[in-house]
C-alpha cells in the first residue's frame, strides 16, 4: 500500500493538487487541443511524473510550472492515491491564504485560471470527472453528488 504522504516511489503515472486559496479552489482551463486528455475542461494543477520523483515532488513541480506557485511539502495537508486505466494517480490537497492568488501566473499550459467554489467544480459539466470525484471524496461527501438539482 502506498504511503499516505506520497513519499514512496511505488510506480505512479502522475499527481494532482486540490489547491484552496482561502475557501476557493484554483482551477485551470485546459488547452482545447484534440491530442490531449480532457481538452477544454477545468483541471487541477498537476501532471505526469518525471524521472524518479516522488508523488508529492511531482505535484509541487507541476504546480510551480503551471501556475507559478512554490509550495513547500509542509503546506500540503492531505493525500490519497487511486488507480486509473493508465496507472496509479496521487491526489493531494493544500489550503493557503486567499492572498496567495496574487502570486499566480499561468504557465505554458492552459487557457486561463480562476478560483471556483469546490461545490461548483464538482458540479461543473466541464470538470474533469475523476478529479471532481476525488475532490468530493476529500470534502467528505463519499463520492456522492454535491449538486442540488
Automatic annotation (TrEMBL):
InterPro entries associated with the record: NUDIX_hydrolase-like_dom_sf (IPR015797), NUDIX_hydrolase_CS (IPR020084), NUDIX_hydrolase_dom (IPR000086)
UniProt KW Hydrolase keyword: yes
Domain Nudix hydrolase: 2-139
Segment forming the signal sequence: none
Domain of life according to the entry: Bacteria
Molecular function via GO: hydrolase activity
Record flagged with keyword 4Fe-4S: no
Pfam families: NUDIX
Keywords recorded for this protein, A-Z: Hydrolase
Swiss-Prot/TrEMBL cofactor(s): Mg(2+)
Protein name per UniProt: NUDIX hydrolase
Organism of provenance: Pseudodonghicola flavimaris
Amino acid at each position: 500500500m502506498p504511503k499516505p504522504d506520497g513519499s514512496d516511489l511505488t510506480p505512479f503515472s502522475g499527481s494532482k493538487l486540490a489547491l484552496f486559496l482561502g475557501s476557493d479552489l484554483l482551477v485551470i482551463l485546459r488547452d482545447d487541443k484534440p491530442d490531449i486528455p480532457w481538452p477544454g475542461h477545468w483541471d487541477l494543477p498537476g501532471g505526469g511524473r518525471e524521472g524518479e520523483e516522488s508523488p508529492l515532488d511531482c505535484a509541487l513541480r507541476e504546480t510551480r510550472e503551471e501556475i507559478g506557485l512554490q509550495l513547500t511539502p509542509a503546506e500540503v495537508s492531505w493525500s490519497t492515491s487511486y488507480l486509473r486505466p493508465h496507472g496509479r494517480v496521487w491526489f493531494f490537497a493544500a489550503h493557503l491564504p486567499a492572498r496567495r492568488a496574487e502570486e499566480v501566473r499561468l504557465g505554458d499550459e492552459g487557457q486561463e485560471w480562476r478560483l471556483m467554489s469546490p461545490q461548483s467544480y464538482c458540479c461543473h459539466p466541464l470538470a474533469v470527472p475523476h478529479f471532481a470525484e476525488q475532490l468530493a471524496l476529500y470534502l467528505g461527501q463519499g463520492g456522492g453528488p454535491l449538486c442540488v438539482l
